[in-house]
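Quick check before the chapter quiz. The format below is the same one you will see on the exam, so make sure you can read both the input and the output lines.
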Amino acid sequence: MREVCEEHAKEMVALGMMRLMELIAMSMGLTGHRFEEFFKDHTSSARLNHYSPCPSPELALGDLSVGHHKDPGVLTILAQDDIGRLEVGRKSDGRWVVVKPTPHAYIVNLGDVLQVWSKRV
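Here is the expected output.
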């Protein structure tokens, strides 16, 4: 299991730090390799969350999830199950909107650091 997790983490770094950041840079009118220098000695983390089904969610006390938060880094790459329950805050009215799971797809959240970088371009 450890080897599988390590390989998955390696592939996510390649996807996120290399390919996605290249595309993001190009979409900002920059060269594709603009952000490479920031990731030479990067710190990445992997978090595996599993939530068992709650037989009576209406009776549950407290938060059954990761909880409301912002992603403080550059990118978050998420793999959802078929149940989902990821919600994103909508700026226009402050409401939380459920992100519908898409089979065999990742969800990419842009974090606070990327938001700061994009305002400087």
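If your answer matched, good. The chain has one domain: 2-41+64-119.
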